[in-house]
Design a protein that fits this description.
The protein is an alpha/beta fold and about 375 residues long. It has a six-stranded mixed β-sheet with strand order 2-4-1-5-6-7, sandwiched between helices. The protein has a three-stranded mixed β-sheet with strand order 3-9-8, with helices on both faces. Strand 6, helix 7 and strand 7 form a beta-alpha-beta unit. It is flat, with a radius of gyration of 23 Å. The chain starts with 5 loop residues before the first strand and ends with a strand.
């Protein structure tokens, strides 16, 4: 199986990016209030909140519970002109190139009283901010695409099938980028074209989750700034998660009882960061399956579409190499029947072979021989 996928947190300076990252990783001290506070990307590995672990544990007592983990990269603030090397432009763009999806933090709050959180553009305008970053990524992509076209065309003249597909895809990308549109909306039914497109690894091909950083008076993101971000995301087929970075950073420092009390006082059932983490996990095309026994109940991560042997390989490479079969049931099966023995007696324990495609919420026992 591939290495754990990563989402990169991006945004203009001073939109609350590092505050959110620190709250997510409970890293404590917040970043200083000036552009480029985070120069090298910080890497955080955060647990993915999942109530199914507790639901399994209710019927299968265990020594420990282990959640799935998500890798997040805090990438320093991009500024206007980054594609031309402004600020630390080239470095930022290379960091974005290395992640699998983008979590785009957008400022949707005005300056709180008594504070001076300077917006790098001088005013709060979330759509302008989104477009600044999109433009820099599109300009960088356009430069990459135009640099690849000549070579691909030369190779295509020799009748090379892959080069022909690459030329066709590059021309479509060039047209879209030239119109000021990201390429993430491009889809190809032809597998050769789809493969060529994926191989380009363009910045604007990456999936995006927008995070509206709201103030404490708009925790559900219903204010005018957040509403504009929702409209933008809807037009792109994307998603928005409203988060108040200030509140989340305070919650991250509390113990469980105080956190619960504070959440109740503001009318939230869980920290918004829980929603954000699950949404980022889904954005990366990931899902969880479970193993459950007296030693541990654990969530394991696989890409959507992974087969049973690949899932077994996440636990141990020997499991994939010597895979025989998987015994599978769902979390809801356990809730309905209370024990694995009863699940088996009810005919709900499925025996799956090498071609089985994993489902989110599968609970598995793998049989292997090496």
């Amino acid at each position: 199986m591939p290495a754990l996928m990563e989402a990169g947190i991006v945004g203009l300076p001073n939109v609350g990016k590092s505050t959110l990252f620190n709250a997510l990783t409970a890293a404590g001290a917040l970043a200083a209030n000036y552009p480029f506070a985070t120069i090298e990307p910080n890497v955080g590995v955060v647990p993915v909140p999942d109530d199914r672990l507790a639901r399994l544990n209710k019927f299968i007592p265990t020594e420990k519970i282990v959640p799935a983990m998500l890798r997040l990269i805090d990438i320093a603030g991009i500024v206007r002109g980054a594609s031309k090397g402004e600020g630390l432009g080239n470095k930022f763009l290379s960091h974005i190139r290395n992640v699998d999806a983008i979590v785009h933090i957008v400022r949707c709050f005005e300056n709180p009283k008594g504070s001076d959180i300077t917006h790098v553009e001088g005013s709060v305008d979330p759509i302008r901010d989104i477009e600044i970053i999109d433009t820099e990524l599109m300009l960088a992509d356009l430069e990459s695409v135009e640099g690849m076209i000549d070579k691909a065309q030369r190779n295509a003249k020799s009748g090379d099938k892959e080069a022909k597909a690459r030329v066709e895809v590059l021309m479509q990308c060039q047209k879209l980028l030239g119109e000021g549109k990201p390429v993430r909306g491009l889809t190809f039914d032809n597998p050769d074209l789809a493969r060529a497109f994926k191989g380009l690894a363009l910045l604007t091909a990456k999936r995006v989750l927008y995070v509206a950083n709201v103030d404490e008076g708009d925790l559900h993101g219903e204010g005018p700034h957040a509403a504009r971000v929702r409209e933008r995301a809807k037009a792109e087929g994307g998603q928005v998660v409203p988060v108040c970075a200030k509140l989340e950073s305070e919650l991250a420092e509390l113990d469980e009882a105080d956190r619960k009390e504070m959440l109740e006082s503001v009318g939230l059932s869980e920290p918004a960061l829980s929603t954000l983490t699950r949404s980022a996990y889904k954005l990366l095309g990931l899902q969880s399956f479970f193993t459950a026994g007296p030693k541990e109940v654990r969530a394991w991560t696989v890409p959507v579409g992974a087969t049973a042997p690949q899932a077994a390989g996440v636990i141990h490479t020997d499991f994939e190499r010597g895979f025989i079969r998987a015994e599978v049931y769902s979390v809801s099966d356990l809730e309905a029947h209370k024990t694995e023995t009863a699940i088996k007696a009810a005919g709900k324990l499925r025996v799956e072979g090498k071609s089985y495609v994993m489902h989110d919420s599968d609970v598995c026992h793998f049989l292997f021989n090496v």
